[in-house]
Amino acid sequence: MKKLIGLLVICFMFSLSAVAQRGGQPEVGGGRQNIPAHGPARVTTPHPAEEHRNFSEKEGHPNAPHVDRGKTWVGHDTGPNDPHYHLDHPWEHGHFTGGIGRGHVWHLGGGGPGRFWFGGFYFSVAPYDVGFCDGWLWDSDDIVIYDDPDHVGWYLAYNVRLGVYAHVMYLGRWNGEIYVN
Predict the structure, then answer these.
(1) pTM for the full model?
(2) How many CA atoms lie within 13 A of 23 on its CB side?
(3) pLDDT tens across 62-81, in order?
C-alpha cells in the first residue's frame, strides 16, 4: 500500500511540473478563456492570397487560420480583394440575426462544412476554408460568430475547442417548415 501511495505521489508531482512548464494557458484554443474579445481588425496592408499557405507561424500551432491567445487573428490578412472570398451576391440569404462575438457561444447541432446549424440558424463554410475544418465536431463543438470586416457576405466562425476559424456564409433560419431570411 505504501508503494502504491508513493507511486501516486510521484505521478502527481510530474503532472504538476508539466502544467507549470506549459504556463497553464494554451496559446491556441483550449476553451473559453481564449475566446477573442472581438473579431479581426480591417486589413490595411494585405498579404497576397496564396493557394497553399502555411498558417503555422510557431511550433505547435495549427496549419489553419487561428487566433493566438484570444488576440491575434493569424491568417486574416489578405484584405478585401482576396478572390477566395469574392461573392457575386453577398448576403443573398440575409444577415445573421443571432448574437455575434464573445458573449454568444453557440453549440453546433449537426451537419458538416457544406451546411451546419445551431439554434435554428444555418451556415456553410467557404470552399477555400473547408480543409481548415478538419477536426471540427459538427454535432458538439462550441463556436463563436464574428463579423468579417474585409470580406463582404462572410462571417468568421471561431471554434472554441481548437482555436481555429473559418469563413462561413449565413444560409438562413429554419422555422420548422421552410428557410426564412
Answers:
(1) 0.83
(2) 6
(3) 999 999 988 999 999 999 99
Cell numbers 477573442: residue: 36
C-alpha to C-alpha distance for 132 and 140, rounded to whole angstroms: 17
Nine-digit cell string for 48: 497576397
Please answer whether residues 77 and 141 qualify as being in contact, where contact means their C-beta atoms are separated by less than 8 angstroms.
Answer: no
How is residue 149 written as a grid cell? 470586416
User: 79 — alpha (psi -120 to 50), left (phi > 0) or beta?
Assistant: left
Distances (CA, A) of 129 to 21, 121, 167: 33, 20, 7
Task: Please state, in angstroms and rounded to a whole number, the distance separating the CA atoms of residues 156 and 89.
Answer: 18
Question: What are the tens digits of pLDDT across the range 121-147?
Answer: 999 999 999 999 999 999 999 999 999
Coil, helix or strand at residue 66:
strand
- Tell me how far apart the alpha carbons of residues 173 and 30 are, in angstroms, rounded to a whole number: 30
Q: Looking at residue 109, what is its pLDDT?
A: 97
